[in-house]
Amino acid sequence: RLILADALEYAARLEPDVLIDLATLTGACMVALGPYTAGLFSPSDELCRELTACGQAASEDLWRMPLNDALADQHKSDVADTKNTGERWGGAITAALFLKKFVRCDKWA
């Protein structure tokens, strides 16, 4: 996660129109969605629609997952700026929320 966060922060400095990362950060998404559906995290409704349509055209199933900010407190740390892992619950969401901290692009997934 730390290396991906660095890469996302660097990519965001290049001011892309769209920023997409594909990663297997946790098995929590597979527990929730099974082995044939990919979890899709994005603050952009438009990008989610576009990616879901592309997935359907390629016979790849995508399911939008929530970026629930209520879980962001799991990243608080007494000794660092942020923790890169959360607690047991909402593991896929907390992984996406961690990465979101390093992206300054409206169209990110």
Q: Report helical residue fraction.
A: 25-40%
State the shape. globular
Main β-sheet: number of strands, strand sense, barrel status? 2 strands, parallel
**Gyration radius from CA atoms, angstroms:** 14 Å
Tally of individual helices: 4
Distance between the termini: 15 Å
How does this structure look, described?
This protein is mainly alpha-helical. It has one domain. It is built from four helices and two strands, in the order H-H-E-H-E-H. A two-stranded parallel sheet has the order 1-2. The mean pLDDT is 86.
Name some characteristics of this structure.
mainly alpha, 2 strands, 38% helix, 4 helices, 109 residues, two-stranded parallel sheet
What's the SSE blueprint?
Elements: H1 2-13, H2 28-33, E1 37-40, H3 45-57, E2 61-64, H4 91-100
Parallel strand pairs: 1-2
Outline of the structure:
This protein is mainly alpha-helical and 109 residues long. The chain has helices spanning 2-13, 28-33, 45-57, 91-100, and strands at residues 37-40, 61-64. A two-stranded parallel ribbon has the order 1-2.
